[in-house]
Automatic annotation (TrEMBL):
Molecular functions (GO terms): channel activity
Species the sequence originates in: Bombus impatiens (Bumblebee)
Family: Belongs to the MIP/aquaporin (TC 1.A.8) family.
Protein name as it appears in the record: Aquaporin AQPAn.G isoform X3
Gene: LOC100745773
One Pfam family named in its UniProt record: MIP
Gene3D superfamilies named among the record's database cross-references: Glycerol uptake facilitator protein
Lineage: Eukaryota, Metazoa, Ecdysozoa, Arthropoda, Hexapoda
Presence of keyword Repeat: yes
Primary localisation category: membrane
Subunit structure: Homotetramer.
Keywords: Membrane, Repeat, Transmembrane, Transmembrane helix, Transport
A cellular component annotation (GO) from this entry: plasma membrane
Cell location: Membrane
InterPro entries xrefs: Aquaporin-like, Aquaporin_transptr, MIP, MIP_CS
Length: 251
């Protein structure tokens, strides 16, 4: 009974979110998502019709942005900067329920602020071309979009769990680079299909600022579905058993 109660307390995480230092984690998640959306979406803007951004350009901007943020914010909040990441870690037992909810709210606020500031920083003509909003590719239907987003986010969460698992010594120190490269390769594959969101907050920000909601639900359902499956799979099958402590998305 005592062990079950302790497990429930850990899952809910009330004690964790009541600590004063938790506010710093929330600020880190807000700031991290703000910078990711601002910088990443800036790379998606078409300035001239004959010189649109390339897939490689966009992929490396998002990948390197996350890798850079992970070095700074990883020790503070874990640098989730993505509601799908927080949900996947909740499923695998590495993030409490209340922490997940608080993180997602802050991530969404940061993403909206990032898109809003980006709109203020660029000319109106450029902002009218999309602000880096994610959209389905030509002839791509909604189900295809959901599955592509689920697959690339599934890959991301598997890598995150693997490189931040304290029971593994072979990946120590590689987490930011490995995660950044995973985002890069996923973008190279998925940008033409869905815009490669992998991050519901990243899609929410431009959608809110531009007022374009049509396919936004795809960029919530797909990534969260893939993340939750990856979290469950890693917990049940892939997690190493050589130490007693639980894995954590902290670098």
């Amino acid at each position: 009974m005592g062990k079950g109660w302790k497990g429930m307390k850990d899952f809910v995480g009330l004690e964790e979110v009541m600590k004063f230092e938790f506010l710093l984690k929330l600020f880190a998640e807000t700031l991290g998502t703000f910078l990711l959306v601002l910088i990443g979406c800036a790379s998606c803007i078409t300035w001239t019709a004959d010189n649109p951004p390339t897939v490689v350009h966009i992929a490396f901007t998002f990948g390197l942005a996350v890798a850079s943020l992970a070095h700074v914010l990883g020790p503070i909040s874990g640098c989730h900067v993505n509601p799908a990441v927080s949900m996947g870690l909740l499923v695998s037992g590495n993030c409490s329920f209340l922490k997940t909810i608080c993180y997602i709210v802050c991530q969404c606020c940061g993403a909206i602020a990032g898109s809003g500031i980006l709109k203020l920083l660029i000319p109106v003509e450029a902002a009218d071309k999309g602000l880096g909003a994610t959209n389905l590719g030509l002839l791509v239907n909604q189900m295809q979009g959901i599955f592509m987003e689920a697959i690339v986010t599934f890959l991301l969460l598997l890598v995150i769990h693997a490189v931040t698992d304290p029971k593994r010594t072979d990946t120590k120190g590689w987490a930011p680079l490995a995660i950044g490269l995973t985002i890069t390769v996923a973008h190279m594959a998925a940008v033409p299909v869905t815009g490669s969101s992998m991050n519901p907050a990243r899609s929410l920000g431009p959608a809110i600022v531009l007022g374009e909601w049509d396919d936004l639900w795809i960029y919530w359902v797909g990534p969260i579905l893939g993340a939750c499956i990856a979290g469950a799979l890693y917990k049940l099958a892939f997690r190493h058993k050589t130490m007693d402590d639980e894995a954590s998305y902290d670098f």
